[in-house]
Amino acid sequence: MLRMRIKRLNARTERAIDRLAAVEMSVAALGDEDLLDLADIFAAGDPTPLREMAAAEMHRRGLTL
Fold it and tell me: Which domain of life, per UniProt (predicted)?
């Protein structure tokens, strides 16, 4: 029973990691205007992981809002 639970948890973790990598790749694939729009949407309010991803990509490209 414990092995099955560990195996299920590991599979769930792998899927979550894959989804996160796909989101990061999607943010990186955005054009400059779309990236700025995304960053603008998340600029107000509490910090979120998506906001941090957009900010990191903007910094990498040398873009500012």
Answer: Bacteria
